[in-house]
What does this fold into?
Amino acid sequence: TTIGINELEKVKFDVYPNPSKGAITVETEQTHEKTTLQLVDITGRIIFSVSLTSTKTSISLSDLSPGIYATLLFQNDAVVSRKKIVIE
It folds into this structure.
């Protein structure tokens, strides 16, 4: 008998503009009832988190310091995709 580990299917999403001056738009091909976007700084600290309820969401990040951040897309509490974004 073997035990398998199911790989999560990558979910396609875009974050733009990249680099950004403080506002981004997130577009996903689909959302589930538990779809969340998190921004994480270079130290791994969660800086921002928002639930996505539609396939296109505009987000203001004007309070963030300039730098490189990771965007993590969660569905049902599992990371399904990630991208880097630069805030100028």
The longest strand covers residues 78-87. Residues 20 and 47 are 16 Å apart (CA to CA). The radius of gyration is 14 Å.
